[in-house]
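The instructor's notes for this session suggest beginning with a concrete chain rather than abstract definitions. Hand out the sequence below and ask the class to guess, before any prediction is shown, which regions might be ordered.
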Amino acid sequence: MNKRVKKMAAAMAMAGIGAMAVAQTVPIVGIVELSGPGATAGVNFDNGVKLAVKEINAAGGILGKKIQYTALDSQTQPGVAKGLAAKAVDQDVPLVIGPVFSGSILVSMNETRRAEVPNIIGGEAAAITQQGNPYVFRASFTQAAAMPKVARYLSESLKVKTLAVIYVNNDFGKGGRDMIGKAVDAKGIKVAADISTDQGQVDFSSAVLKARQSNADALFVYSNEEESARLLKELRKQGYDKPIVGETTLANDKVIELAGEAANGVIAHVGLTADAPNPTVQAFAQRYQAEYKIKADHNAMKGYIGMHVARAGFEKVGKIDPKAFAKTMHGISISADKYPGVLFDVTYDDKGDLDRESFFVRVANGKTQVIETLKPAR
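After discussion, reveal the predicted structure:
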């Protein structure tokens, strides 16, 4: 751990983070999964942040100060993320952005809370904002907001009576599993099979067999990108022919790329998609493609939106004041007309959860297609 801390301290020193930097710039630290099993999500999130920083600085920065952004690699390890967060807040940064993985956030956010430093995060586990942390704010939907929408679709559109659930056994997966269970129970849908899988799992033959043997009307999948792709391939291999439904990750471009034809037919509720029928989103997607030569996924959009939300919050306060920022963010509404970088009109509640438009998509011919647009819940 000492070597990691030394490397991080050196990186921050090179970036100029400290009292002088605070006076002349807005130093923001990203704690992101640049390596390890979360690298796909973390790198895309970081790319989105960097594109937003580039645009904001080109437009004059935040309150006339340029953003100085430093990305630190959590290695998808909660302990490393916690150490990086502790070091970041000790350097007097006014904001931390990331991580993406909920397991890392649940430990790293204790450090930002201790220092009263706002933390914009990419994780979706409901438990994150249920702890009453006044300094944590999402760039994506919480599972508690998303899963009732999935349950409604299962009940009303697919007429599902029984459901098999396959989830990854980590904080992200267990949170999603618990929330979908509550949501479908409220719709009178019975969970016929509750199937746990491991992070990094390669062989999904047993999990798929259990889902098939349950004879459920549909399957709900909630796992990480690489594991989701392997699972979809195994489902097709075993001839699974029931509807396969999920949330944002299941319709991720990386999943579609890795799963190939096995992804076709998948349906997912997504809080963010570059395919949204929205000119502002389409313009962002074109800029992202030009910058990184890949299509923006939901993690890239989280990072991009998160940084633009930070700009809006600080400008609402009128100064770079972390405590005032956190207070202002509770109940704030940010207009995409005034701040196009947030992409959609967004409102935050008193817990740091957000509300905005969301979508249902279907994968066809290797691409996602928006099949339904859902209005904000409030």
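Then share the key points. The two ends are 45 Å apart (CA to CA). The CA atoms of residues 98 and 348 lie 17 Å apart.
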